[in-house]
């Protein structure tokens, strides 16, 4: 399997060549040259693997379709190390929870930081350590975070050989719980840097350091952002695991130990739909990849909050990025985006994988006029008809109402992002099992839960008293030089 860029660069690259890279050199995003096809017989085999050997074995099977430059035994060992009940809390790894008939939550948030980003980031940590070890290289990951991504990266990379993390966050602006999650890590390779400024200052510093190519090369600076193909690939696996659980006899019969195939029905006959609380379009893009592989998915419903760049596109065909000033701070903050950094991957497929056309949209029209308009393009209609996309948006009031209603009717407390998903899913029920991806646990957003329910959410046992743990963080002014010096002090060249 080779990888190509969405902007036309077709230099043949293998998985491990792009693993440690961000954007392709032409500014595009990497995609596999084709989507491996899973027919009914293969789907039945994967269902059996999942039922008999579990999530890690399923992950190995799916990853093997895309990765042929890691020996099988090694890749299997990496999957086995990553997806354990110890790290993800349950044997199912992504348990399916019924809310009401036909509506389910797919639990993706039981990893170390209680958000779905752990699903991919934990795998990335093991893949990075493996590949850097093979090459005899080191990597210094520099990132900016306002919460979820930074902590997922730190928990994935802590203690890994050959890797250091330098994570910038806005001083005093994360919630006490988020600060405690990150700053309580005592691992020697994790460096928290609180910047005296806002999140944009942190991001500007990361950009400035990365644009200093000499510094970047000398100190082997890398990133772990959501455009990394390996992260997206890891997320494809849970669409399969969700499908198998939702279409097993166990769900239909309402009990039993593990998902089993349904022998009286042909494999692939059952279809399901997914609703995905979305920001950068990484999570739902993995659903698109699963569907392109042949997973029987009816609809992929994109749920946004007030920052509705994606909903606007799927409704109108106009993709209009927002200025920083027009990006709202909401109570589902991990979806507060001004542009969706993975969206280019879907547009590339929509345009029949025409790299030159994709380049014109993303490298010329978007920077030039701030939007592009596909409403007059016959292929835009295919976004819904051929690729199954639907969309909707949710507001703070919707979030509160949904959290309250799901708590009252189903006895389940959901987080604010998942609430956006449930609200939009209900508007798109299509007679197929609807799986809403649960992207975080409510404890991370306790303030809004309290606003909705009048009491804070339950705190998982391992997080009791986390705010009282000793903190490991240095506070620096919002200046590039100081951050560079902090990196240089840790890295020998
Ligand atoms: C990152 C995140 C999202 C958005 O996912 P994308 O892949 O960026 O679309 C939604 N919910 C939570 C809790 C997140 O952390």
TrEMBL record:
Keywords: Lyase, Pyridoxal phosphate. Residues 2-83 form the Threonine synthase N-terminal domain. Its cofactor is pyridoxal 5'-phosphate. The modification N6-(pyridoxal phosphate)lysine is found at residue 117. The keyword Lyase applies. It comes from the Bacteria. The keyword Chloroplast does not apply. CDD domains: Thr-synth_2. GO terms for molecular function: threonine synthase activity. Its EC number is 4.2.3.1. Gene3D superfamilies: 3.40.50.1100, Threonine synthase, N-terminal domain. It holds the Pfam family Thr_synth_N. PANTHER family: THREONINE SYNTHASE FAMILY MEMBER, THREONINE SYNTHASE-LIKE 2. Belongs to the threonine synthase family. This is Threonine synthase. It comes from Comamonas flocculans.
